[in-house]
Design goal:
Low-confidence stretches: 20-25
Largest sheet: 3 strands, antiparallel
Radius of gyration: 29 Å
Oligomer: single chain
Order of helices and strands: EEHHHHEEEEEHHHHHHHHHH
Mean pLDDT: 81
Strand order of the largest sheet: 3-4-5
Strand content: 5-15%
Shape: elongated
Structural class: alpha+beta
Number of domains: 2
CATH superfamily of the largest domain: MetI-like
Number of strands: 7
Length: 384
């Protein structure tokens, strides 16, 4: 540095064009962390598409009653196991708008089943923003307005109907409210216990660490599926669907925290030796402040990725328990409860549309896995 006659200072170091060129070639050097994370996440196409899909799925949950043409418990006794209906737009070469055809049921006495025939001569247009069965918007506001409805004298079973004549499409939408929410509640319980016990074991060590590790080993030594079955069977049968839903969510969270606790403990064992942690201790900071303000933020990327990968496991857990009849029970509607009606392989062979909820489960689980992979890669923005 040299001083000018007017008192200002200038840098008299030689000019290096390579330094300026490196900044031009690497514009991310001075970018904020959130910008780096977003740029890397956008490059993960599957993760980005999955995130948009899941975001839309959760945003639409309060509006399920408006989107579904029927309510979850609405029955049509004259259309049991009705096949899926297709919405057509053209009739005899002319565009007449979305419409369906009236169907009539006939008894097949040879195969002991109902067969349905469409009357192609009578197209019936769909009704939009119409009034039908009553539901609760956001679970609170009563409404009868639906996005689209079946026209008078016709049915609208986009995914067919089940053994009681209930619309499978509408029940999948209503089932998403429970099946997608159970993972969020379970992950909250799991993260509260896993982060709490893991941080205590990793930061304090000694007897605290030994006690928590023995507890984790005992829980991990128990067979998972029989433990699920035992805890679920202990739920009183007279409890309502809401109480059973919360109990199942808590059970899934209680059984999922040991793995996270060990990951947190291992990370804290290395972080507690860092200079900034030692400096905070020397300045008199309390352990709770050191853990919450200094150590956990350095572990947040792993926690976010772990959450995205744990939610689908809890969704599958609820589905398995409900499928076996030990989780959510009717009249509650979830994807596992719907698959409980599809346990008979002969029924699936004759009425394959009863297994459509399985497709929804596969799509959601894959979306969470792809989103977790994308977040795990993008939260390390300096990795090439």
């Amino acid at each position: 540095m040299s001083r000018l006659p007017d008192g200002r200072y200038v840098d008299d170091a030689p000019y290096h064009a390579d330094h300026e060129a490196s900044q031009i070639d690497n514009p991310d050097m001075d970018a904020p962390t959130r910008v780096l994370v977003w740029r890397r996440f956008k490059k993960h196409k599957l993760g980005l598409i999955s995130g948009i899909f899941l975001l839309l799925s959760y945003l639409l949950l309060p509006f399920v009653g408006f989107i579904a043409p029927y309510t979850a418990k609405e029955r049509d006794a004259e259309h049991l196991y009705a096949p899926p209906q297709f919405v057509s737009f053209m009739y005899e070469g002319e565009y007449i708008g979305p419409h369906v055809y009236k169907t009539t049921a006939t008894a097949d006495l040879e195969n002991f089943r109902w067969t349905y025939l469409e009357d192609k001569t009578q197209p019936v247009k769909l009704e939009f923003f119409c009034h039908a069965s009553e539901y609760r918007l956001f679970g609170l506001i009563k409404s009868t307005r639906h996005l689209f409805c079946a026209p008078d004298g016709a049915t609208l079973f986009l995914f067919g109907s089940d053994r009681l004549g209930r619309d499978v499409f509408s029940r999948i939408l209503y089932g998403a409210q429970l099946s997608l929410t159970v993972g969020l509640i379970g992950i909250c319980v799991s993260f509260f216990l896993g982060i709490g016990f893991g941080s205590l074991a990793g930061y304090f060590g000694g007897r605290t660490d030994w006690t928590i590790q023995r507890l984790i080993e005992i829980l991990r030594s128990l067979p998972e599926l029989p433990l699920w079955l035992a805890l679920s069977a202990a739920v009183p049968s007279h409890w309502g669907p809401v109480a059973v839903f919360f109990i199942i969510s808590i059970i899934l969270g209680l059984l999922d925290w040991p793995g996270l606790a060990r990951a947190v403990r291992a990370k804290f064992l290395s972080l507690r030796e860092e200079s900034y942690v030692r400096a905070a201790e020397m300045m008199g900071a309390k352990p709770s402040r050191i853990i919450g303000r200094h150590m956990l933020p350095n572990f947040s990327s792993h926690l976010i990725a772990s959450a995205m990968l744990s939610i689908p496991a809890m969704i599958l857990g609820e589905t398995a328990l409900s499928f076996l009849g030990l989780g959510l029970r009717a009249p509650a509607v979830s994807w596992g409860v719907m698959l409980n009606d599809a346990q008979n392989l002969a029924s699936i062979e004759i009425y394959p549309w009863t297994a459509i909820p399985m497709i929804a489960i596969i799509l959601v689980v894959l979306a969470f896995n792809f989103l977790g992979d994308g977040l795990r890669d993008s939260l390390d923005p300096y990795q090439k």
